[in-house]
What we know:
Helix content is 27%, strand content 23%. By secondary structure, it is α+β, with helices and mostly antiparallel strands.
Amino acid sequence: MKHIKRISSMVLAAALVMTVAAGCSSKKGGDTTAAAGNSNTAQASGEDNFDADITVVQALDMVSFDPIQSADMSNVYTLANLYSRLFRYSENLGAEKELCKEYERVSDTEWHFKIWENVKYHDGSMLTIDDVVYCLNRAKGSSIMTALFDPVKEIKKVDDTTLAIITDGPYPSLPTALTNVATSVVPQAYCEQAMASNDWSKPIGSGRYSFDSRVIGDTVKFTRFDDYFDPDDKALNKTLTIKIIPEGTARTIAIETGAADFNAEFATADYARVIDNQDLKLWEKDSQMVWHLGMDNTAEWFDNKLVRQAVNYAVDRDSCLQVGYEGLGKTVYNCATFAPTVMGAVENPLDMYSYDTEKAKELMKEAGCPGFDTQIIVFRDEAERMATVVQANLADIGINAEITRIENAVFPSYIADHKAPMFITSWGCYEDPDLFLGRRFTEKGYGGVNRVWYSNPELDGMIKEGRQFFEEEKRIPVYQKIQEFMAEEAPEADLFVSKTLALSNNRLKGVELNAERASNYYKLHY
């Protein structure tokens, strides 16, 4: 089995925490000893402090400041601090107005969006409706947005504060599609210059923070932008530093020692360690984050749906949840990345799957498959632990899987080059299936997030049918039919929906978690 070489976890943790502490202001050290108990309300100490220097730790580095270059969560939640877009994520990954001040659907196929006036960029220049139209059209041509904007025929300027989006039919999910980070607005002139030079290292946006500095693989630092266009919703901290600490326990120690304020990606292996610590606060929320075992549907044997079905029967999802997330979540037997909270979700369509090694062996025999060698690609600690379970499960049916760990930044190239025959990763679902089905399972998603390389004209027709109505009660039966179809096709094996977890000291205020992960760092304060 191929793994990254590891040193003692405690030695690594101590080294990483020393690195974090070196980059933090002196206010941090030791302050956690004054915190109240591990309760829902942090102890107040005088008036709120809105000038704190906040440090957030996460596992993975961002990929690029170009909004259309990565759908990776580490990128999405970093860029959200810097750029504005028409809509931002709501708590359940719906749409909340941001740069858009008001909007209306003027017909089944035309929407008008009015933006804030006098919006200033970080360099002092003014945002224009032409910038918005330019950036949305650029996003439309990107692999990230190809499926999301497939129904969009035209994006055009109406007047100096209004744009229109014309669709080829009803598209009830359009506002939520506009929450995607790829739709972020940057100055057209800057964007053209950055593309020409292939240099996005000094980004300009109109978000709550301006860019300060970046050390690749280590930190990204932002400074509050006091000219943010919505004066009632400005950043509640002076600076925001996102610190990269790959090892989970090291992130926990950073909070325990006061080297950081907030751990946006809490490692469940430390759950028992922190739950009774009176100086810490563990934040939990039910999520729409689906962990899944992907298969390249173009690879030998994985191009046979009987083999893919066999994999779905062979995997012990309960053990994956226990090993990967300490049991903090819910197993699912879906093959289309539907979390239980998604519109029309069915946890086990057709009651088709269970952990049944003998059934898996029968399907392998029916497929004429004698077994084969393959790889499971991972780039996170949780996924690597789950992969050891899957590896043992697959060995029982004659599939010998080598586990290979890579950096998250190169994962898209592994998918694009068909170098990931199997992989374990997660996907944060929108509530509306129309916003992920086309991206995940049609040709429009190739080069984007259709990582399993699956498409089917019959599915394409059902996806289009699902968006023909604005009424949920008419759409739900379509999505239930899609899930039954995908259970038979089995392009992937969904494993479980994890809890959203984060950790802070017990004095930190303004913590918010959405259905995907910790969000809205601009609200963090003391």
